[in-house]
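Entry 14. Ran structure prediction on the chain below.
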Amino acid sequence: MVELRKTLVIGSWEDAEKALARIAECQRMVTMNKASEEKEIAVSRARTLADNKPYQDEIGKHEKLLAAFVKEHKKDFEPLKSKELPSGVVGFELDKPGLKYPKDLSKVVEKLRALKMDEYIRVIEEPKKDILLAHRDRLPLSELGLEIKTQKDHFFYSLKEEKVG
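Output, structure tokens:
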């Protein structure tokens, strides 16, 4: 483990370079540690998948056999659509209803408009932020209830690739 010095002082550009080099070294260690962790996770995940495979296979076999048996005995479910057993419930259920759309939705929208069924049409309206920002000098922003966020100078640094990897 690397110990952080208690008093760090940057008093020259040489000191600044040393700080950037140390940051690069630390980031390299973080990257290596994360890669090691991801490898361990991948190995563990693969082991878990392998350990679970026989169970998953057996579950699949039981599900197929159970579904076939239940379908053969569908008459036993009338008037109900399910049967409670000590370990669970089996039965039949309808899928949730859904709409099958044609490839060109604009025709559906046109027909809805022609039938004056606008309440079935979703229209998403929002300001074009990038254009508003680009034209901010000639727009009455305050009348629109808008204001420009205060811009601040923020410190940044970027490391050269050869220093990081």
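Helices lie at 13-72, 105-114, 129-134, 161-164. Will compare against last week's run tomorrow.
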